[in-house]
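Dear support,

I submitted the protein below through the web form. The confirmation email said the job was done, but the results page showed an empty box. After a refresh the structure appeared. I'm attaching both so you can tell me whether what I see now is the final result or a partial one.
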Amino acid sequence: MSQKTTISQKQESKSSEERPIIVKGARVHNLKNIDVKIPRNQMTVVTGVSGSGKSSLAFDTIYAEGQRRYVESLSSYARQFLERMDKPDVDFMQGISPAMAIQQKTTSSNPRSTVGTTTEIYDYMRLLYARIGHTISPKSGREVQKDSTKTVIEHLLDDFEEDTKFYVLFAIPEHEQKNLEEELNVLKEKGYPRLLNIENEQILDLTTDDINPSDIDASEYRVLVDRLILKGDEDTRTRIAGSLETAFREGNDRCSVKIRDGEELKFSERFEMDGMEFNEPTPQMFSFNNPFGACDTCEGFGKVAGIDENLVVPEPDKTIRNGAIAPFQGEKFSRHLRDFIKIAARNSLPIDTPYQDLTDEVKKILWEGKDEYVGIRPFFEDVKSQSYKVHMRVFYSRYRGYSRCPDCEGFRVRKDALYVKINDKHIGQVAEMTIGHAREFFEEIELTEFEQEVADQVLYEIRKRLKYLDEVGLSYLTLNRLAKTLSGGESQRISLANSLGSSLIGSLYVLDEPTIGLHPRDNDRLINILKSLRDIGNTVLVVEHDPEMIKAADNIIDIGPFAGIHGGEVNFTGSYDGLLESQTLTGKYLSGKKEIPVPEERRKGTGDHILLEGACENNLKMLDVEFPLGKLICVTGVSGSGKSTMVHDTLYAAVQQQLGSYNDKIGRHRKVTGINHIDSVEMVDQSPIGRSSRSNPATYTKAFDGVRDLFSSTRQSKIMGYEPGHFSFNVPGGRCETCKGEGIQTIEMQFMADIELTCEECGGKRYRKDVLQVKYRGKNIHDVLEMSVSEAIEFFVDEERITNKLQTLEDVGLGYLKLGQSAPTLSGGEAQRVKLAKFLSKPAGDHTLYFFDEPTTGLHFEDIAKLLDSFKELVDSGHTVIIIEHNLDVIKSADHIIDIGPEGGFAGGQIVGTGTPEEIANIEESHTGRYLKTVL
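What the results page shows now:
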């Protein structure tokens, strides 16, 4: 009987592992009552055109239900809100595992959060340094160690021959309340009546010799504990140990050994050396998030308000003699430069080497001063002290900014934490390494057998995390890179690496386009990572458009056939080969039946260009780059090669500044010329179109102004006396005052993310009941906001002022968006295309330079074709478009390519090649060229 039970239990557990995730009757958003089956422990890709309902299925149905079931297992405090937490609109779901969503959100806005802390690598590093770090004295460069009776005896036996005679001593104690005579009397009472003169080894007996305390110099004498002869036998060792213990106790943890006719050796049971006392390493000491470990000056931020090095040395490729130091160039302060040249001659310092190639020692002298040369920092302190003079205030403000903290040198932690080293590197230097270099450092770290034993588990955790980060294509990020500066794709891949590091099994991972921001070269590595996540026993569900990712899937679900109300159905489910034979849009593009054609000819442009010279921000290597105007320009290269640094931080910022409207930091460069050929500049990036949940595509594109005017002109409105303002949810009047026109109310949870619930007063409709009774062609204002862009174009077909604004949203592939969809819920790619639509709806006028950052984010092949038509329209209207992109369909359609690389991080920042796609495809060193060959 029991045997049968065991067998049936085994079969049951086995069948639950193999049982698929079943979803029946899903109706969330635009899903049309669909049924899907997702095999467990396999990788399933959900694909389809933008807005077809992929995210509604993966995130809003499957993940949301997994999360809801998890929260249901929490305390009664949490459950009191759960009746109000909406259950996904679905008939039946079975087989849901604990679910984790890895989305494209920048993980943190905390100014202290870094790649190292987010991935826990820095926490393990703190533990490693606390356990096996060697504290090195900054004065002598020797290791600081505590002495003990045992180590002193070993030192004597190792360094001196047997039968060596020596004295065991301690210093005469000093107390503020007692004079020397009283101290000597106490020593006599304790039974230490003899003093030894360190210079001549003469012994004074306090009990017999006639001594005047005023004749004794306490620094020349020591209290004698014992006279001994060095031998290795047990009895002698015991006696030496006893004498040393006494000397340590009486000498306040310090003692010395004087070799007869030789040197005095000083020992201390305290953690000190060279007259400095050090703190013993603890994990807290290395934490810049903890008041104990953070540098006091910069409070753990690594930067302080002061003089900006980039402003003092605007052109780091210049030498000191040729004017690298900007403030010393004028006639007034040039004497400081002459002073430096004098001390450089005396100390053989290089003044004809570019500033960027100078060693840290030379830079330190340059900034801190030496002999008659005052130094840049003290020079500015002097300027600051004269701020009562207007011209000095103006001069100082010219160079003011944020600079590395002078106390911790920008490493964020307290000074003595930087004395602790492993393999000659302190924790700050390791945190400045890229993930690739850090991986190398920890793989090749040299440790003693004891250290290896102590650090074994910690090193395993560090190496494992670095390996995963390297494999998801983030080897170019430094560990101290601020988390808030990461792109959505980078944050998502860090979360993915964290998930791998935690080695969970039996979970459901839901990912949102993890290939975003990845060069085709790195896709293979990412796919292997997802497969390894699957292979350790997890179910992986990926929303994705990338052909390589779709090809690698075990199972594919294609949602469509189109977007919005014309989507929400399951077009296809099955294997990759089956998809190629299907008649779905995705299948047609993947099989080559349908394709985005290569342009028959490349545009010639206007003949003018903008020239960026000497770009050297971050990893850029003094680049001179020409941007031909009147063309579609693509800037390509592997992740981390320097594309955004060159285009956003340097070119866009410099052009904006010259056109008179930019106050933010500008990437270092020599100059930008040719700006006179353009009239304006627009950055179309992936930042949200609005922070408020009241902001939406209709208000952003100004189409809603026309809608409000239309409603206020109806007969019903005129009877009620309603103005256009009554149909706005941004101002009091017609809106629901309970939720202030948001349609939702936010409840603050003390222990988890806040919960957003539908407003009970208006039922999420945003307006007062009497305003909702006003109708235009049978629809009230809330019904209009619930329409998709495509539906609204059909509905307002006669109203040109509305349809003109909406048609551009349709043209860039956003016909599926609801007019009233809250801005924060739009993805980065959608927000970018809403902005593009706004620019397309403006009348073509002056020559504008447009910047786009990966506009294909979240786009299906069909939508990329529409997007390229929009770019074509912009360029044909006489504008110039510069795009940072990895998508090969966009790259092959460009007129001009600037390829940066060859690798990411330190190994990037160079121009690999420029020219047409055909020319780039022939450059062997270009990773982009290699993949372009396959599509041209």
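Response: this is the final, complete result; the empty box was a page-load delay. The longest helix spans residues 449-471.
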